[in-house]
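So, read this over?
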Amino acid sequence: MVLGLELQLVLKPVLVLELMGLLLLLVLNDEIEALSAIYGTDFHTESAEHRTYSIDIAEGVNTALLQVTMPPEYPGDSPPMYMLSAPWLKGMKRQELCGYLEEIYLENTGESIVYMWVEKIREFMTEQAAHEPVVEEKSSITDAVDKLQLSFEEEVQCPEIFSGDIISDRKSHFQPHLAAVRSTAEVNAVLRKLYQNKKVANATHNMYAYRFIPEGSSNLHQDCEDDGEDHAGGRMLHLLQIVDAQNVLVVVSRWFGGILLGPDRFKHINNATRQILESCGYIKHQESSKRNKKTK
């Protein structure tokens, strides 16, 4: 009799835990069904096994992609893990939006919050669009010049683009891309081609640097772009200068994962740049010169 009582005392907490787990699963399934019904084709199942989903968000000319992974403890004791891809969202504005998402979780602990997150992002996008400066219409002459320039650049064949391995750290991901270039038109052609890739276009930052000597010239052209990641492009250009890489464009895409990396982000950007330069033969190793050194 005593043994039976002890067994009941052990089994009751186990049954309670199982019932709680089943309840959470039902809540989670209801939320997924609701999101799918609300957002339709904008809602995507990335991995049913890992419970990873994404939602495309569009407001005006701006777009964003919110990817969430729902851990077993969600929504009871843990928020979803998320990655927000929005090329228009930079620096302090991104931190401001991430702060809003954290506040929503803290104010609604234990509740399903993905819908609240999506609508907060949409509201934030609307507010940003309202504060964007109005661009004055170009004169017909300026417009004609731009069209001629675009027409000329479209005639330039896009050089082959190589992409390197992804470097990941605390939910942020870095991937380098490289192309051999000999003109600004080729640089622009490569950038246009890369931005046609939805994943690259939705990266938080696409910083780049290039150095080239035009055909029939002896003058070196070089420039860089931070794309919201302050000083990143300049560091990439400095690396190209150190290794004396010429006639090359390197782009590093970064997808921010919601956790600030501090100075480590520059380490990953530099490593990604060096990796693609080395794999494509733009960095010459000094091993042969070392072997030729005289030994005593």
